[in-house]
Amino acid sequence: MAGAEVPIISSRVLTLPNLLSALRLTLVPVFLVLLVRGADAWALLVLLVASLTDYLDGVIARRFNQITRLGQLLDPAADRLYIFAALLGLAWRDLVPWWIVLIVIGRDVFLLGLGIVLASHGYGPLPVNLLGKAATFCLFYALPLIMPGQAFPMLGWWSLPIGWAFGIWGHSCIGGPESSTLSRRPG
Fold it and tell me: Domain 16-172: what homologous superfamily?
């Protein structure tokens, strides 16, 4: 893109966006426990707080030039952990089939392995792109939509089709941080 400003990536650790990401990470086990115990309203509240902190850390990082290497690791890790926790919690309660858990986790393990192989051949990390963000968004919001339809059949007529559509689309976009453009590291 012509004229696009390249953000400066800092090695700082103590920034407000990193603290928000750390808070989001500490809430993952709380979310999972609430979900497994069937406290769905509380689990959804934790997920709402996590979503809000996810949004805020990105806005603050870009607005105040606080993009950090640590933040680039914590933010997507937190997103993936919430997706995994939601899948595991819902599967534990037999609201989502275990084969879906295996497919989603298998996909991420594949992408992690691909990133390691590419790094060993001198390529930089897989860059984040809009398709990857859209896929994560869909997976992040599909599970809370599926949950009420499974737990309360009278809501299933609308929540299940929408939730499964989000989930299928999000998973089918080999989204994540992939991109068709990889840059080779110098040297």
Answer: CDP-alcohol phosphotransferase transmembrane (TM) domain (1.20.120.1760)
